[in-house]
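Much of what follows relies on a compact textual record of a protein's fold. The record below shows the convention in full:
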Amino acid sequence: MELRQLEYFVAIVEEGSFTRAAERVHVAQPGVSAQIRRLERELGHDLLDRSGRTVTLTDVGAAVLPLARAALRSVESARLVVEEMAGLVRGVVRVGMVVSCGIMDLPELLSSFHSSFPDVEITLVEANSDSLIASLLDGQLDLALVGYAGPVPDGLSVRVLADEPLVAAVAASDPWYGRESVSLDELLERGLISLPPGTGLRGALDAACGSRRPRIAFEASAPPMVITLAQRGLGPAILALSMASDLHAVRITDPSPCSRLGFAWRSEGPHSPAARALIRLCSTAAPPETAASSPDANSRKTR
C-alpha cells in the first residue's frame, strides 16, 4: 500500500469522479485508475462502486476512508514539523472571505503578509459564510473571514471583529420610518428584504425566528442590492447596524438578534508554518471602524 494510492482514493471520493480526481492530483486518469485497482487487489475488496453516473463508496470503502484520511494527515503533520524546525515559511495558504465584504480590508492584510513572506503563495476565494465554515472544517481553507450567529462553530477558533445588532432598515416612505424599534412579532408580519440562506445575517435572522419562518419578499446576494431595494420603498431590509447608514435603522427587539464577523480557523491542526504566520497576523489585526466612526463605508459591507 502506497501513500499515493490513498491520496488518489480520497481525491476520487471527494470529487465523485476519476476524471476530476486525476485533474486534482495532476496525474493521467489511467494512472489513477491503475493505482486504485492495485490498492483494491491488495486489500481484497472493492473500495469504489463504479456502476452509477458518479463514483460512490462501497461498505468497505466507507470503512477505509477515515483511515486513509488519517494516514495522509499524519504524513502532512510530519512534513510540517520538519519545515518548522528548519525555519521554512513557504508553500500555500488558502483564504476565504464572505462575498463583497468591505468591513475589513483583507487585501491589505494579505499584502502585508506577502511582503513579510514572499515565498508563500496565497489563494483567495469568496463564498457565503456557511460554505466557508464547511471548507475550513474539512481542511480546504486555512483561514476565512466569516459571519455567524450564536456560539462559535465547533472545531473553530474565531477572532471577533464586529458584533452588531440586526436592524430593519427602511426608507423615508416606510410606515416604520422614525421608529426606534419593532418587535420580532411585528417584523414577521412584513415582507422583508434579506440576504440568502448561508449568510451570517440570514442565519442570525432565522435563529431569532426559531420555529417561525420570516416572509422574505426580496432576496439579493449582496447588500448593495438589498439596500437599493429598501431605498425604493419595497420593505424593511435586514442588515447589521453598521450597514444601514443610508436608511433609517429600526432596532429589532424581543429578541434582539446579533450577527458577528470574524477571522476563523481550525482549532486543531495541522497548520503549516505559513498558515500559522497568517493566523497570527489576522488574530492581532486592528478591528475595523464601526458605523459611528465611518458611516460612508457601510453600503459596501456584507456578511
Notes: Confidence is low (pLDDT under 50) at residues 290-302. The chain has three domains: 3-85, 91-161+260-300, 164-259. The first helix runs from residue 3 to 15.
